[in-house]
Amino acid sequence: MFDLKDAKVMVIGGAGFIGSHIVEELLKEPVREVVIYDNFTRGTRENIEESLMDERCHIYQFGGDIRDRDILDRAMEGVDYVIHTAALWLLHCYEFPESAFEVNVRGFFNVLEACKKHDVKKLVWSSSASVYGNALEIPMTEDHPYNNTTFYGANKIADEHLAIAYHHRYGLNQVGLRYMNVYGPRQDYRGKYIAVMMKILDRLDKGQPPVVYGDGSQSYDFIYVRDIARANIAALKSEANNTCFNVGTGIGTSIKEICQMLLDLTGSDMEIHYEPEGQTFVTNRIGSTKKLTEETGFSAKTGLTEGLKKLIEWRSLHQEQVLMRQKSMEGK
Questions:
Q1: Which residue among the candidates 37, 132, 152, 179 is catalytic per the annotation?
Q2: Which regions of the chain does DSSP assign to beta strands (E)?
Q3: What is the pTM of this model?
Q4: Averaged pLDDT for residues 246-261
């Protein structure tokens, strides 16, 4: 087991949707210092306001872009552990594959180099279930073939093999986490599948019926963001090394079911409006969680109904943030 007592931990992408929750979970541990390294492309200061009230937590002041090797190198001095969550999202990779490569692959290489140079005890980093593509079998174990056809998934596959190579060449302790579909407070509108919840709630706020593309049978494994944060801490503290884990609930839920749950939870009597299916990258993806539970002791605690209630509550308490995110997407 890795001991976090008096440890200095860097969270790359720590102001983002997932990263900010990881920071909060880290601050529940007896760590000495948590450094947030973020260029605020996706993250926001609002996401980390409460964490920054803890004197152990601060933003690295000289920058936060993983493409800036000299700044990243300086920031990692004296760091014991690194949790890496920074990446360009799936649709950005689709539109701008070269810039996605520079961040997701070259940037990750820079992270690996800095970890090696500064003898970081362990790196836990965000891979993705996108490496699997459409499921060939359900549930998908970590041995499921790479069936990916997207630039984003290709980036993450490259990262997985880079991490393995650094372990074998330099002895770097590393664990990659293949997230299923993450949702919850501070949710990013740019996600292809996770954002469906926010878009449904946006329409209900405006008195408009929710829209489902296709027949709504597309099924995914939805996991609450706080559970994702807990999984990162469990992987960091565990003896697991040089491996990847699925992080999900192991339960599949269709888009139609999600839509109906949100209608029920908000007390709406709207009818679902179906539109022809548009661009879809994956239609079926549920992961096995057996390996993660056996090797780290982690299991998701938040059921989908409970998680959706928390998301709805967060939206009602943070309308200003929600409106800003809506406007940022309208301008794209």
A1: 152
A2: 8-12, 33-37, 57-59, 81-84, 122-126, 174-179, 181-183, 211-213, 219-220, 222-224, 243-247, 253-254, 273-275, 284-285
A3: 0.93
A4: 95
